[in-house]
Amino acid sequence: MGGLRRYLLATVSVAAFSTGALAADIPARVPVKAPAPVVVPSTWAGFYIGINAGAAWNRAKFTDLGDQGGFAYAFPVGTTFWSPDKAGFTGGGQAGYNFQTGNVVYGLEADIDWVNSKASFSAPAPIFGGGVTALASSKLEWMATVRGRLGVTLSPTLLYVTGGWAIAHFEDVFGLSGAGAPNAPNNFSSSKTRSGWTVGGGIEHMLARNWTVKVEALYADFGSWTVAAPFGSNASRNYSSRFEHEVVTVRGGLNYKW
Predict the structure, then answer these.
(1) Whether residue 247 has pLDDT greater than 60
(2) What's this model's pTM, rounded to 2 decimal places?
């Protein structure tokens, strides 16, 4: 009986020793790390489309040029009698394409915007010495541009300058009303689509790979034009009025890019 006990103890000791030795030979488990996420570098290159909204100032000048003989229509000849600077809401959309070389971004953008800017004017016409009122109004209905853009990236932010061609539609009216002169409140009427040039700049920020927001300001000059009309008993006498327009736009935009 004692021999059997000694045999069992020896067997258990050998088994325990063998198990410990095998465990010592097994290498420790190394923690497995998840693969690092693939970071896709952000780029400004590619096509984009978006919407914008802001304010547009229709800055006009109305000048009474009189007639060929130097006779005034309502104000002294050559008088710029009204210079409205009327702001209105503007909203629309834009589309463009960017190229990128290093931190330099360049491309082309086109936009078209509806504008709600209308101003009116009423004042005594000094040429008639009372009883006659000069009336005028100016309205900017829409504006579109095609512009080049050139900028530099600062991390996810782009600073840029822009310039190119602009086109807009204006409705201008100038005339007289009152008992002292023939009623002609629309004597000089111009509904005209004008082209000009534009320049400006802005800042654009990349919210995500496909989304950007921007704030920009544009100045556009549409030059001047003259409207002539007969007036009074001598219909062969043409009086003239000159209209001039500049537009300043400040707006924000949201773009989706591919």
Answers:
(1) yes
(2) 0.80
